[in-house]
Amino acid sequence: MLLLSNSDLYRVNKVGLIADYDRKAIFDLYQPIVGYIAVSIYMTFWTEAENFPVGYFKTHQLLMQKTHLPTGLFIEERKKLEALGLLKTFCIKDKDYNVYTYDLYAPKTPSKFFSNPLLYGLLLEAIGDQAAQKLKIVYLQNENQDKGKEISKHFAEVYNPDLNASAFATTFSPTGDNILDRLQSHVDSEFNYATFVKMVEQNAQISSANFTKTILKEISRLATLYGINEENAALYTIDCYDATRPSGNKIDMDKLKRRFQDDNKFPNLRPIQSEKTTISSKSQLAAKINLMESVSPKDYLRIKQNNTQPVAADLKIIDDISLNLRLPNNVINAIIDYVLAKNKNVLSRAYTEKVAASIARENILTTYDAMIYLKEINAANKFKKPGKNQTKNQKEEENVENNTDIKEENNSANDDNWDDILSDLDDNE
């Protein structure tokens, strides 16, 4: 992720046609998922795209003043629009500032929205099954009315054009013009059938003939709902293949669903795709932040413990933090790094939750801001080390008096190493 500056310029492109009826889809279908702040950004961009020419540039400072949003929150809310295919962001790096282009896409039609298992699943999570069913009724077409006999005229009954005329010959040939049309960006998590089948054939002697259209659709639905990519879905499917079963039913779909559910046991820790923070340094800090922003908390913890799989107890701590405090994965990685460094490589639940809650109260959403905050906490703690002669009660009273309320449970050899890395923050502030 690039560090967004108020002086950075931006412009908004409306890609394809976005009509007034799309507003209803945005508010009814997308707002329960992304929230009102992201919708406000979308509507602001929509208005600017209509009011200003394509090449008209503005500063992000004006945008933040207009929306009353802090930069960090704007970036997080923008990501939600990008993830659902409503927005694409492009950036040209310059020496003194960056130039952003925001491409705005139309929302999916209600028909495509409700048939998309990922989008409809997110809606169900947001408002519940009962409210979602009521909302679906609003968009149902009433085809059960007794309309009588259709008496509409066909094209040929009204028009009798000479198709050999030059006008029609011109129309039939491609003009090469880029005519405005209604365009929708896809959601990145949509399942690729070809990739899935190719992965199955590469890893097992299972013919693609075993995958009927119905089976492929069900595997796609399950994989999309549980966030499983094509490669893992293929490996799980191979594991659930039984050659002794009847033809057309050789894949145990119940077993496959359980495998997907097991993979989804810790949903908040799944690997995420994210941009890397750009810092003008080749230090340990830059490398550390780039790693934090490119892997999931589960993988970051695995890397921290010499590529061994994390135990369930540690994963449960991180999953609870993500679920209860709604912190982004990159910030959780910063918390993991700090706690392990200050607590002899022990991921204590009480200490981890204390640090995480403090960061949540500060509304910190970026890795860089989290590292800055933890640096300040680290410095504050160095001035309030408990003395050897203090009683347990005196130490507890000091903890209460400390505004940060975050103390290292144990000092460790990692302490100095972490301080060295944090010293690079001074060069980037």
How does this structure look, described?
The chain is mainly alpha-helical and 429 residues long. It is built from 21 helices and four strands. It has helices at 21-34, 36-51, 60-67, 71-83, 110-115, 117-127, 129-138, 155-158, 166-172, 193-203, 213-226, 230-239, 253-263, 284-292, 297-304, 312-325, 329-342, 349-361, 367-382, 392-401, 414-422, and strands at 9-14, 58-59, 87-93, 98-104. The chain has a four-stranded mixed sheet with strand order 2-1-4-3. Strand 3 and strand 4 (98-104) form a beta hairpin.
Structure keywords:
429 residues, mainly alpha, four-stranded mixed β-sheet, 21 helices, 5% strand
Gross geometry: globular
Strand order of the largest sheet: 2-1-4-3
Strands, count:
4
Which residues form runs of ≥5 with pLDDT under 50?
Answer: 171-175, 270-282, 392-405, 408-416
Query: Mind telling me the C-alpha Rg?
Result: 27 Å
Estimate the strand proportion. Answer: 5-15%
Question: What is the structure about, briefly put?
Answer:
The protein is mainly alpha-helical and 429 residues long.
Write the layout of secondary structure elements.
Layout: E1 9-14, H1 21-34, H2 36-51, E2 58-59, H3 60-67, H4 71-83, E3 87-93, E4 98-104, H5 110-115, H6 117-127, H7 129-138, H8 155-158, H9 166-172, H10 193-203, H11 213-226, H12 230-239, H13 253-263, H14 284-292, H15 297-304, H16 312-325, H17 329-342, H18 349-361, H19 367-382, H20 392-401, H21 414-422
Parallel strand pairs: 1-4
Antiparallel strand pairs: 1-2, 3-4
Helix pairs in contact: 1-2, 1-6, 2-4, 6-7, 10-12, 11-13, 15-17, 16-18, 17-18, 17-19, 17-21
